[in-house]
Amino acid sequence: MAGAGLNRRLKRWPAWALLVFVAAGLLAVGATRDTGPRTPGERVDDITRRVACPICDGESVYESRNNASESIRAEVRAQVAEAERSDDEIIEFIADRYGGQVLLVPRATGIEALAWAIPAAALVCALAGLTVAFRRWQAEAATARGATAADYTLVDAALAEDRRSADDPPDDASRRSGAARRSGDDAPPEGDQP
Amino acid sequence: MTAVSLNAAIGNAGLLLMLASTTFGAFATAFSIRARATRTLRQAPRYAWLALGGAVLATVMMQRALITRDFSLAYVQQVGSTTTPPLYNVAAMWSALEGSLLLWVLVLAGFTAAVAWRFRTRTDDVLVGWALVVMFVVSAFFAFITFGPASPFAAGPPVPVGFDGPGPNPLLQNHILVMFHPPILYLGFVGFTVPFAFAIAALITGRVGEGWLLETRRWALFSWAFLTIGIILGGWWAYEVLGWGGVWGWDPVENASLLPWLTGTAYIHSVLVQERRGMLRVWNISLLVATFALTILGTFITRSGIINSVHAFSAGDIEGYLLGFFAAVVIVSLALIGWRGDRLRSPGAIDSPVSREGAFLANNVVFTAFAFVVLLGTLFPLLVEALEDRQTVVGAPYFDTMSTPIGLTLLFLMGVAPVLPWRKASAELLRDRLFWPAWCGVGALAVAVLVGADGWAPLAAFGLAGFAGGAAMRQLVLATRRQGWRGLVGRANGGMVVHLGVILIAVGLVASNNYTQSANIPLTVGTVQSWNGHTFELESVALAEDDRASVVSAQVRLDGGRVYEPAITTYLQRGETIGTPSVRTGLTRDVYLTLDGSVRPTPGGDTATLRVFVKPMIVWLWIGSGLLAVGTLLAAFPGTNRRRPTDPTSAPVPIGERMGEGAGR
């Protein structure tokens, strides 16, 4: 049982604080560290991944191997070699030259902004819906009539059986009694119960 | 000309048999149920056998036509060639629109017959009866499509003696996976028809309780597994054949297969909430309807040519039918749900968001949002075209951007959900149960940082993957400690094995998407080039020709070891040229060699330009898929003698063991 005590002591808040600290530190180190200058080849790859081949069916210039893509790739390579424009500026330049349909990412303006706005709106709606649903469930639970004598008998029986078979932590036992209220189709999850 | 009429005539007869038996079966079964005619109701399985017989006959005749190169058929003219090797000639059946629909029909007939067989002792049951009616109707629709507007047995224009067709698309005669990817994917797509049929049957009969869910639990599970494996095999095929070094391109066709997968995955999770708490009834039925409707919509999107895709088959005349069927499915389902609205109202309530059911609900919201985003991105070009009359493309970068937060949320949920109890969790319980999984996450993060990973999103993904993996392992360790090997089977435990597979796949995807390096390397015979810690030496440029194709390949010695042969193949019949990569697979990184198509090397010459990708962790996608398949089998394992939910979980545990276990918590 010494092991159990140690385990319990280990899981107190200092260890959790340490965990958060270590995780944040590692994330900060990894996210900010300098991995050296990007090679021009990598920049060309990154940019061409965001540009559609003008004559194919939805392939990017990066993937496509035809002449049109080859000429765009050459143009990007030249721009990168000049090292004057940023990635976004090069993409704008290509888009101006070949027309908007070479962009693989919708713009944030005009009608194309809908591609970003609609998911955001959907997210807000989903969260609002969930909040409303939980509110309603809580309200229902609050107005539901209290437990009857039969319920208490049922719970007592379940608890008695429980005591025979387990030394559960308290919330497992209370959960089980809660589950027993809905008799019939219920059993504890297979993994969480001794 | 006798052979000509034979293949087409018998094939058409098979399809007609299927069309007739399913149509008649649907009417006869429905009327028997209405008239309470038990004797005629018992005939229902026979229509399913007949339909299967017809579909098998049609498939056999199609294969015979392909094998005998029966060029009187338009379809064989399109995909047949005397030079196609036997293996790819078999696969030629599903290399274009009509034949792939025939495969669909075959799988659908197989599933209908399987349902009829599985429930053969319960044909009196109106739930089974209505489910069969739905299966018959869906089968009849597809039989009609293949018999009529998209017939694989349609006669082609007359051809001269000695005519030879082009053969299947070169990309489809280049790798063995072409044999497996489409049939397995179709098993997944079509398999979801079964739970859908039972959902509709439950609505019609009003038995909207949990009975139909339990009946179709394994059907849904296996369909989901087939769909998953089919999608991954598609990625594997793309990786081995297409030569751009990726597994997933967010192409409309790929998205069309992902959409039902997303809603199907949501379903196999939320179904647990209904089985246990009796809640989310409307939601579950809606998810099944969505999954089924999205397979139809996906077929429509990819087969009608309304959205450009490298995958899309040439447009047939079936888009109207598919769209009509899609609309019918949605309208009928919604009407039924509305009609049964009162019975679908569930009694329970979810007490707390921090509970098992709360986590499942969150999972569902995220998966549905994911599906919505994928659908929006896929259809967005249509929207822009309709409103502004111009062409746009929504490509991989958009989907990558959108799926990053969604994927991270899902990984987080995978970590938290398995430890949550039903009803309500206390902070103390979370602190206790999440402790070691959370440290697993920190460990994974530390390893990732040590091996040089950077960027906050990939690092967060690795950390959360470790967290989720720790939570899954915790469940498996607790269960096996208690029950021995039986702790690996059952839905909860098998599900955790599936989770581990999914986590491996997620790690492989994140690593390979974020840390791939590539370069063009000009090589000359006799000179060793090195790049990124690897050496490349060109040995020769060779030419191999037969009457099917001419192959220019470069023999490249990699790291002084084995020789790899990336190639450019020109298919003579079609005049198409495709590059074939050559890959060295390793546990931590793949080296992926292709010949740069823009600089085609001269056979016998001494120069070639390689395009090389170094992609980390790719092999874990395939290992994870294997684990996922194993986990699905484990989840389905207990079979008919599965523990009744009301029985005690296990035999009494001896005192000593129980104390040992207490130490582990």
* Largest interface, counted by CB within 8 Å of the partner chain's CB: A-B, 78 and 108 residues
Structural class of chain B: alpha+beta
CATH homologous superfamily grouping of the domain at 40-105 in chain A = Cytochrome C biogenesis protein
Tally of individual helices of chain B:
23
Biggest beta sheet summary of chain A = none
- Structural class from helices and strands of chain A? mainly alpha
Residue stretches of chain A low in confidence (pLDDT < 50, at least 5 long) are 168-194
CATH secondary-structure class of the domain at 40-105 in chain A: Mainly Alpha
At the third CATH level, what is the topology name of the domain at 40-105 in chain A?
Answer: Helicase, Ruva Protein, domain 3
Model regions low in confidence, pLDDT < 50 over at least 5 residues of chain B: 639-665
Shape verdict of chain B = globular
Give a short account of the largest sheet of chain B.
Answer: 6 strands, antiparallel
Detailed description of the structure:
The complex is a heterodimer of chains A (194) and B (665). Chain A is mostly helical. Chain A contains 8 helices and no strands. In chain A, 23% of the residues are buried. Chain B has 23 helices and 10 strands. In chain B, strands 2, 3, 4, 5, 6 and 7 form a 6-stranded antiparallel sheet that branches. Chain B has a 4-stranded antiparallel sheet with strand order 1-10-9-8, covered by helices on one side. Chain B is globular. Chains A and B meet through helix 1, helix 2, helix 3, helix 6 and helix 8 of A and helix 12, helix 16, helix 17, helix 18 and helix 19 of B.
Spell out the key features of this protein.
A: 194 residues; mainly alpha; Helicase, Ruva Protein, domain 3; B: 665 residues; alpha+beta; six-stranded antiparallel sheet; four-stranded antiparallel sheet; 23 helices; 61% helix; disordered C terminus
